[in-house]
Amino acid sequence: MKFLLVFDFDHTIIDENSDTWIVKCAPERKLPNGLRNSNQPGHWTEYMGRVFAYLGDNGVKEEEMKRTMTTIPFTAGMVDLLGFIGENKELFDCIIVSDSNTVFIDWILKAADFHEVFDEVFTNPAAFSSTGYLTVQNFHAHHCKKCPKNLCKRQVLKEFLDKQLERGVSYTQIVYIGDGGNDLCPVMFLKKNDIAMPRQGYTLEKKISQLAQDLSPVQCSVLVWSSAADIIAYLKLLIKE
């Protein structure tokens, strides 16, 4: 009996957007208008590539970025939740599927000593170049019309589950914890026995309730959370069953 917990990262594990937080490193803590307005819908990763190039051009070094990123607060109750999952790893497999990048997520999880809680992290690959610039690439190519060009979270989840099945691992239930519009595609892939946990007041919750109003509700159960304490309460019930 094993449960799979799937987490988004920005505004879910941390209470901010890691990509916009890095702007605190920019001169005067802001981006020039031309750069700020250059983001095209569905092409966020390319936009962040330009942001990182701008930071590099302005002499922002890896140490400063790391120092800035590790000040991002975790969402209310999240530290307790991740501690609880860590203590019950025999019951929970735990993955992150995020539109952030490997460098940011790695820094933040390691600084708080939570990297051991997660079995795998699926996000845009990032690295520092020989000249000290942070670079980022799309996670994969896909054909999903609903998702941004760089990442379809449904495809990531499906491929992970297929790989686990090949290893002889299947899950009693999938619990999907997220907040954003790009979390809807994987939520719509969940089955009747699974549960989606959208963050209260965020895009995912609004999109799920819009679907219900349009009489095409998601198949899985839905439980809204505002603090990660709500998620712990649910997982404790799950374990008791």
Architecture overview:
The protein has helices at 18-21, 33-36, 44-57, 62-69, 78-87, 102-111, 153-166, 184-189, 203-213, 228-240, and strands spanning 3-7, 92-101, 120-124, 126-128, 134-136, 173-178, 195-198, 221-222. The protein has 241 residues and is of the alpha/beta class. It has a six-stranded parallel sheet with strand order 3-2-1-6-7-8. Strands 4-5 form a two-stranded antiparallel ribbon. Helix 5 runs parallel beside helix 10 (228-240). The longest helix has 14 residues, at 44-57. The radius of gyration is 18 Å and the shape is globular. The chain starts with a strand and ends with a helix. The model has no long low-confidence stretch (mean pLDDT 95). Pfam families: Put_Phosphatase (PF06888). One of its GO terms (molecular function) is phosphatase activity. It comes from Oxyruncus cristatus.
Mean of all residue-level pLDDT scores: 95
* Poorly predicted tracts of residues: none
The CATH topology annotation of the domain at 3-15 and 74-124 and 148-239 reads as Rossmann fold
One letter per element, helices H and strands E, the order comes to EHHHHHEHEEEHEHEHEH
What is the assigned CATH homologous superfamily of the domain at 3-15 and 74-124 and 148-239? HAD superfamily/HAD-like
Shape: globular
CATH domain class name of the domain at 3-15 and 74-124 and 148-239: Alpha Beta
Strand content: 15-25%
Cα distance spanning the termini: 11 Å
Report the total helices.
Answer: 10
- What is the gyration radius calculated from CA atoms? 18 Å
The main pleated sheet reads as:
6 strands, parallel
* Structure classification: alpha/beta
Specify the helix fraction band: 25-40%
As laid out across the biggest beta sheet, the strand order is 3-2-1-6-7-8
**Oligomeric form:** single chain
The tally of beta strands, per DSSP, is 8
Named at the architecture level, the CATH assignment of the domain at 3-15 and 74-124 and 148-239 is: 3-Layer(aba) Sandwich
